[in-house]
Protein: beta-N-acetylhexosaminidase
Amino acid sequence: MNLLPRPVSYVDGGRLCEYRGWETVLVDGPPGGYRLLSSDDGVLIEANDAAGEMNALQTLRQLLGPQAFRAAGEKPVVIPACEIVDHPRFQWRGVMLDVSRHFLPKREVLRYVELLSAHKLNVLHLHLTDDQGWRFEVKRYPKLTEVGSWREDSRFGDRRSAGMAGRPHGGFYTQDDLREIVEYARSRHIAVIPEIDIPGHSQAAIAAYPELGVHGGGVWTDWGVNERVLNTDESTVDFYRNVFDELMDVFPSEVIGLGGDEAPGHEGELVRAIAKHVVRGGRRPYGWDEVLESGPLPVGTIVASWRGVEPGITALREGHDVVMCPEQHVYLDYRQSESLDEPIPVGTVTTLEDVYAWDPVPAGLTGEEPGRLLGAQANIWTEHLDSARRVDYAAFPRLAAFAEVMWSPAEKDPQFVQRLAEHHLPRLDALGVEYRPLDGPLPWQKLPGVPGFPR
Structure:
């Protein structure tokens, strides 16, 4: 459990001990699990693996209080005497961060790695390309970033409005930047999964190399589903094989994302060809649930179920491993209340309580499906989140609720919101996270008059 791990048995009625560091030993047990014992003799961590030690250290940090989450200043010297035995419910505890629609500088991605680690989340899915921008340096095809990494303007609010921001937007990561992010995350036992989206959401690539597309056009300045997609010429398949070769060279993760969503016409041939290429590279393809409509997929393909839970159930029954991320429950760009004060209100209302109430295991499963439910991820799309401050507002504290759902047993704690307010929000304050207050946005977090599209 992330906010206050359980089960917890306190020694000597909650007596405080002097904190003098810790000792770690490895033991057998569930992956990511640990036992933490704090007493007058010091802190002993029995970790089931290296990730378990990291999880135990994050719990120790929580026990030391909010001051332990500050980068500098006087550190705590006492810790409760206690024994904590803990392990995660799911092995895939992920967050998708869309850095394509609005680019986040490398420093902000590294900060989110730290925030994921603090919440015992262990997968960062980077959505690196879309119609509105290409963020991955491909040395063989330099125009992808020279042309495709920036756009002339951006819709400000929902696409059904007439407003535009009136300024260009852009940015990209060099391969060295991404290797740095990968290593920074690896040291915190977080896997970074890259995604190059095909065959739709590809207008930035088509702007750079028009021969890839069915139609031409520049980097898109609007939001929503774009009818312009990649063609299925063999030269296009070869182009993307080369792109994915460089992607797999930079990202050592077992899993490689290839998108496959919202492509009018469902150009399945391209998706299957690149999925097979990923497998030949010794990796596992990972796609949004529309890939199930692309025809037979390679063994090992992982499906992200975003259009509800039903596609995930279908995928499990077909033998695919699944990550649950249904938009109705864990799309953190969706509005957080019915209030008109919510900035650019889009999607269905998804409150903090809604996120905490969700169970990643759908009711329709029997346990006999040939595929495995690996876990779930929360998705943070950034069409309407044009800065790190806006991402913070959308993500937190709902991401804390998601983290607890992914770690803890299925039973819900009626005191969750109270514990969050008393214990965890002060930690977020110490970390400098500009979260949405529980009673609504602060004056500077509102965007009055900017239209959204609430459902």
In short: The CA atoms of residues 4 and 160 lie 44 Å apart. The first helix runs from residue 50 to 64.
